[in-house]
Amino acid sequence: MAQHDQLHRYLFENHAVRGELVTVSETWQHILENHDYPQPVKNVLGELLVATSLLTATLKFDGDITVQLQGDGPLTLAVINGNNNQQMRGVARMQGAIPQDADLKTLVGNGYLVITITPQDGERYQGVVGLEGDTLAECLEDYFMRSEQLPTRLFIRTGDTDGKAAAGGLLLQVLPAQNAQTDDFNHLATLTETITAEELLTLPANEVLWRLYHEEHVTLYDPQDVEFKCTCSRQRCANALKTLPEDEINGIIAEDGEIDMHCDYCGSHYVFTAMDIAALRNNAAPDAPHIH
């Protein structure tokens, strides 16, 4: 059986091409569990999660990557944020009814894909491409051709294993500064395209690679775990409150008796009373617990 929530990197010995394979199940469920999303939105978040994991693995530095879809359709925003440790979180926002059989174009409408890369050291980078492809994978391939000039292919599948929703994907990319033969890359991409959701989500990574590339010499590296992790904290909320005008905070306290800050990603609530606010203004630590 496949071990889910793991990312595998692999390399073709005879071609200047690298690959990645990821499957997610628990991580995806954690992202969905505090929300009541329609099935098409769940699928988009699953595909975005797979894509973000694959893209994060191409980074050669410590940092974050955010992949988001925005548009004027019923799905106004879908976003996954991840880092080089494969720690992921995500959320979607909707307006209006969502058809059960909605495809990406129907969901997002006139929209675009935004990829934001934030290294721990160095400049933040943002790339934006219009949603010209029919699938998320096609839109991301378009992004790579425009921004990185690196031939890149993505193959994303969603399905069920043992009654649990699972998603997976593969990424192929020409190694930077290497003269990969276009024919070789296209050949490998054609082989990869044959992967079925059942194979990808039920077989171990080494068996998937054997089925796809049994005539190639492929090195498979040790896997990296993928997990859900939210970066929200009481301290972060406190820091945000410190930036707000005092009269605005006083107004909320007067009206509601407290300030309840809710994290869309994980569902946590951070409650600040008038006493907490007074302590913040005196630079005391915001040490009250948060509530799930």
Question: Keywords, please?
Answer:
six-stranded antiparallel sheet, six-stranded mixed sheet, 10 helices, 14 strands, elongated
Question: Secondary-structure blueprint of this entry?
Answer:
Elements: E1 6-12, E2 17-24, H1 26-32, H2 39-56, E3 63-71, E4 75-83, E5 87-94, H3 104-108, E6 111-119, E7 125-130, H4 136-148, E8 152-161, E9 164-174, H5 182-192, H6 197-202, H7 205-213, E10 218-220, E11 224-225, E12 227-228, H8 234-242, H9 246-256, E13 258-262, E14 269-273, H10 274-281
Parallel strand pairs: 5-12
Antiparallel strand pairs: 1-2, 1-10, 1-11, 2-9, 3-4, 3-6, 4-5, 6-7, 8-9, 13-14
Describe the protein.
This protein is of the alpha+beta class. Helix content is 33%, strand content 32%. It is built from 10 helices and 14 strands. The strands form 3 sheets. Strands 1, 2, 8, 9, 10 and 11 form a 6-stranded antiparallel beta sheet that branches. Strands 7-6-3-4-5-12 form a 6-stranded mixed beta sheet. Strands 13-14 form a two-stranded antiparallel ribbon.
Ranges where pLDDT stays below 50 over 5 or more residues in a row are: none
Q: Describe the main β-sheet briefly.
A: 6 strands, antiparallel
Percent of residues in helices comes to 25-40%
Number of strands: 14
Number of helices: 10
* Share of residues in strands: 25-35%
Q: Name the shape in a single word.
A: elongated
Mean pLDDT: 90
What distance separates the N and C termini?
A: 33 Å
Overall SS class: alpha+beta
Q: Whole-number radius of gyration?
A: 21 Å
Output the helix-strand order: EEHHEEEHEEHEEHHHEEEHHEEH
